[in-house]
Amino acid sequence: MLLLSGAQAPYMEKLMRKFVIKRILISIVILFFVGLIIYAVMRFLPTSYIETIARQKSMQPNSKSYEEWMAQLSVTYGMDKGIILGYFQWLGNAFRGEFGDSWFWTVPVTEKFHETVWLSFIMGLISMILELAIAVPLGVIAATKQYSKTDYTISVLSFITISFPTFFFASLLKLVFSIKLGWFDLFGLISREHYHLTAWGQFWDKAAHLVLPITGLVVLSIGSLMRYTRTNMLEVLNSDYIRTARSKGLSERNVIYNHAFRNTLIPLVTIVGGSLPGLFAGALITETLFKIPGIGYTSYQAMVAGDIPFSMFYMVFLAILTLAGNLISDILYAVVDPRVRLS
User: Fold this and answer.
1) pTM, to two decimals
2) Is 326 helix (H, G, I), strand (E, B) or coil?
């Protein structure tokens, strides 16, 4: 990090504030137009829950026609307005924290979100901790033993994990550990005997059902982080100050872990910081394949059912997480390197 004199510090703090404010304002503008695009897409969903309700009600004895029910329900749910007017109405309600009721679950959107998001957060947090604990040390080992058998083995392993499609690896885990070995249930969060277990037994029952989904998330994520760590570590090891440290007679362990690894952590911190908001996003494919009732699987069900209020909330939530992740990365870069603020 660049060292600043006492006279420069207030100036750099002012630049930092301007940098952060500028990034926040840009993010707000982007979010406005992203929300508009998402709303328009939601309005053109081929499957609509309103259509399903109207069709069911029109089939009841002595009921109104399908067209009449559609007109009534469209007014009830605000679907009779144009996309622009409808979006501004949704935006006004969103500013007041009113996101409406889910058409599919018939509960407030925020209530269903709060019910499901924390399970996804726990899965994401455990996966991230394991990913860092596995990928970063392996990336460092591969860099320090460049072109050795260890390096080639780790590199091949990382390429394999990067290449696996999520649905294929999840299906493979279920085939081996659920069907062949019978160690875990195929899907779900609880077993049939869950409610007959003690509180501690219920905890371990849920934990056992999360083993395969978390394994899938970790294995499919470590490859790219291993490659990134290895590349950055090699770049640092070839720096002039590392050669100077070695020429002074420092041990190789001291050079690697006290000098090189500290500087390798700088880009890693920005990546981890940028991925923190994604802990709340859920793993849609993994949760759906294992039928884990997190925010990812819940949003999938909402989209299939044409549940516009919940789908709209979730998609905008993802957009906010993405912008927040980019903002955190930009701020961390600016903190690490003041030249970013100057540019």
Assistant:
1) 0.79
2) helix
3-state secondary structure of 266: helix
Q: Can you name the residues that pair with 108 across neighbouring β-strands? A: 101
d(CA 8, CA 3): 10
Q: pLDDT tens across 6-26, in order?
A: 556 676 677 777 878 888 899
Contact, 208 vs 184, CB < 8 A?
Answer: yes
Q: Which amino acid is at 219?
A: V
Contact 230, 144 (CB under 8 A): no
Give every CB contact of residue 225 below 8 A, 6+ residues apart in sequence: 131, 132, 135, 136, 139, 271
DSSP annotation of 63: P
Nearest to 299 by CA among 323, 286, 315, 321: 315
Query: Is 62 strand, coil or helix?
Result: coil
pLDDT at 215: 92
pLDDT at 105: 84
Helix (H, G, I), strand (E, B) or coil at 47: coil
Q: Is 108 helix (H, G, I), strand (E, B) or coil?
A: strand
Report which of 94, 56, 55, 102 is spatially closest to residue 77, judged by C-alpha positions. 102
The mean pLDDT value of the chain amounts to: 82
| CATH superfamily, with its number, for domain 117-305 | MetI-like (1.10.3720.10)
CB 210 within 8 A of CB 329: no
> Per-residue pLDDT tens for 320-336?
888 888 887 777 766 66
Instruction: Name which of 291, 277, 323, 225 is nearest 121 in CA terms.
Output: 277
| pLDDT (tens digit per residue) in 87-136 | 888 888 888 888 888 878 888 899 999 999 999 999 988 998 999 899 98
pLDDT score for 3: 46
Residue with tokens 């390798």: 264
Q: Which residue has the tokens 């955190």?
A: 328
CATH 1.10.3720.10 intervals, the chain: 117-305
